[in-house]
Write a structure and sequence with these properties.
By secondary structure, the chain is an alpha/beta fold. The protein is about 50% helix and about 15% strand. The longest helix is centred in the N-terminal third of the chain and has 17 residues, at about 55-70.
């Protein structure tokens, strides 16, 4: 199918998959496309089909649906109707570590380098600079990267001489982080641990000088946020610094309403099921105050930086919020 070829070419062009993987993924998607194209299906029939697929196939289907929503092709019935049912089923699946494992497994190491270690995309460059400027890692400091993914800020901290630790509950992310940090010559200065930061951090009390968590809290519930903050405070030294960078929940809420309206007119729109824990400044700052933390908030927009500079509009329209948080004792 032409649309499948276009999707796989897009993944290959971005460096997410290699040329050798295209045939395998094409077979998976051809099977899926033949299923949704044959006739109008019931939710029960689609649900049964998806339950028989392995996690890798389901993740690829999720990726494919996002691609279709982004390019908004003209799809005739029954394909369009069936895909809408698939989308609803896939987006209701609970988020588990394997969702992140499969995302990392699908993406090449070169993609991680180009996105996070030596970012080529201007938005990713701004993200790196914004967080690092706030964190300001120094030689000898003990720095923890919570929800480190492939080790972005663990690497950049170690690169300037800090002692760095990274934690994430995705095993594949931690494996990729170790490989990349060894490749860039800082592997011996970093310790990576697979754990759930929303439950327990495997470190002693008052161990770290600074903690950074970038694009993590939008992936956990409010209850988990509370626990994660308490754990970060436990392992942080008195008067230590926590940097939190996350999408702006107000901006995302406006986007959600916009997508709802667009769906009324049968338009396909891009969504992500992974950002189920989006928050706004009022909600999150109440959590910080409950835990006796001092903080300074700044707005950022890695895509359109000018939005974070408009006094009245930045709260609603800037894409990101960054908090600099101080532990009092």
């Amino acid at each position: 199918m032409e649309i499948i070829v276009k999707f796989l070419d897009d993944l290959k062009e971005k460096g997410i998959i290699s040329a050798g993987e295209v045939e395998t993924y094409q077979k998976m998607l051809n099977k899926f496309w033949n299923f949704v194209a044959q006739q109008k299906l019931t939710q029960k029939e689609i649900d049964y089909f998806l339950k028989l697929e392995n996690e890798e196939s389901l993740f690829l289907i999720d990726y494919f649906i996002q691609f279709l929503e982004n390019i908004n092709p003209r799809l005739e019935s029954p394909v369009s109707d069936n895909l809408e049912v698939v989308r609803k089923i896939v987006y209701k699946r609970p988020i588990i570590p394997q969702d992140y494992d499969l995302r990392i497994a699908l993406q090449s190491l070169q993609f991680q380098i180009d996105s996070y270690y030596e970012p080529k995309n201007l938005s990713f460059k701004r993200r790196k600079e914004k967080v690092l400027n706030a964190l300001d890692p120094k030689p000898g400091e003990k720095i923890l990267d919570v929800g480190c993914g492939v080790g972005t800020f663990t690497y950049h901290s170690a690169k300037v001489g800090a002692q760095a630790w990274g934690v994430d509950y995705s095993k594949k992310s931690i494996e990729a982080a170790k490989i990349l940090c060894n490749k860039f010559g800082v592997g011996s200065k970093i310790e990576f641990v697979t754990c759930d930061a929303a439950k327990k951090l495997p470190f002693e009390n008052f161990f770290f000088d600074k903690i950074v968590t970038a694009d993590f809290i939008e992936h956990i519930t409010d209850q988990q946020k509370e626990k994660a903050i308490k754990e970060m405070c436990r392992v942080l030294k008195p008067f230590g610094l926590i940097i939190i960078f996350t999408p702006n929940g107000f901006r995302e809420a406006i986007g959600f309403i916009k997508r709802k309206i667009e769906r009324l007119f049968k338009k396909n729109v891009l969504e992500t099921r992974l950002h189920f824990g989006l928050t706004n400044r009022f909600k999150f700052e109440r959590l910080l105050e409950r835990n006796g933390l001092e903080f300074k908030r700044t707005y950022a927009d890695i895509g359109r930086p000018f939005l974070a500079k408009i006094p009245i509009l930045k709260e609603a329209f800037s894409f990101n919020i960054l908090w600099m948080i101080r532990k009092k004792i």
